[in-house]
Amino acid sequence: MKKENIILQYLKESKDYLSGEELSRRLGISRSAIWKNINSLRESGYVIESVTNRGYRILNSSDALTPTEIQSGLSTEAFGQTVSVFAEIDSTNEEAKRQAHKGAPHGAVFVAEQQNGGKGRLGRPWQSPPKSGLWFTVLLRPDAAPPQVSNLTLLAGLAVSRAIHSLTGCDAKIKWPNDIVIGSKKVCGILTEMTAEIDRVHFAVVGIGVNVNDEGFAEELKAKATSLRLETGAPVSRVLLLRQILKEFEALYQEYFVQGSSRWLQAYKESCVSLNRTVGATRGHEKIIGTAVDITGGGELVVQTGDGERIQINSGEVVVQGIYGQTPEA
Q1: Category of 244 on φ-ψ map: left (φ > 0), alpha (ψ -120 to 50) or beta
Q2: Domain limits of the chain?
Q3: Averaged pLDDT score across all residues of the chain
């Protein structure tokens, strides 16, 4: 075990301050080395108080994104059993794909404090500021054909909405297919990518970005974006949220891919704000306006036009009346 993890364990177990001298004696290293390890823990997000002639005391560790903290109390079989955390990276999806080609296991999780190349759907840039949001990717190796795996985005959306509600009480809903909203504003985006052949998926990566403790947004985003802190009025633990999302996601993954159940679909529909609203979409060069009336077992949104025609939409941009302040236009 790394020295800083041993120091962390001692600090968590202590009910009072631990002096540098005492830690030095227990670990058999210099007080200077203790100080360096303490600073390393602080850089990881741990809040450690130091008082002259008394020593060190840990004040708060709930928001430190480290493998040790994330896996402590994690109740999953595969999701998150392997965790990699980065201070800064191009994107967690890109890292997950790189590691997938090197043999990283099913359920491996890649977390970043900051992304400098994050992207959303349709190649749009995704802002990933440090210390406020939760940016991570889950690597999956489903034994399934590509059409079945396309529902991973919907499963992840349901998992995130459940986790947010469980942890904060916020009424988080899903805007088909990959946004989580509270009220009319976006709090989370999901991007699923896969590497596959015609009849076989080699792996899929599900990237999830949640606005957790943001206290404000740029002018161009204010009308469309929110955070859990803005909605609850208090800081939210990113570690606890990540654990809850992984727990919910693994349960839904097992239900769908292993048990072959479709129970999740009804739950998704009940949480989907796109249904029973006027929506606008583009299919090819054709603009479609109608009412979203259903979601198929394959994850397509069913839109009924004014003349009664039912059209299935499986991709592209969908504008939902009242969400993000948008109005569908013909």
Answers
A1: alpha
A2: 3-60, 67-271, 278-325
A3: 91
How large a percentage of the chain has pLDDT more than 90?
A: 71
Q: How far is the C-alpha of 14 from the C-alpha of 245, rounded, in Å? A: 30
Q: What single string gives the DSSP state of each residue in 72-134?
A: TT---SSTTSSEEEESSBS-HHHHHHHHHHTTPPTT-EEEES-BSS-B-GGG-B----TTTEE
Distance between CA 253 and CA 233 in Å, rounded? Answer: 32
CATH of domain 278-325: 2.30.30.100
Distance CA 275, CA 174 (A): 10
Task: Render pLDDT for 50-80 as a digit per residue (tens, 0 to 9).
Answer: 999 999 998 866 678 999 889 988 999 999 9
3.40.50.2000, 3.30.70.100, 1.10.760.10, 3.30.930.10: CATH of 67-271: 3.30.930.10
CATH architecture of 3-60: Orthogonal Bundle (1.10)
- pLDDT for 296 equals 96
Q: pLDDT at residue 111 above 70?
A: yes
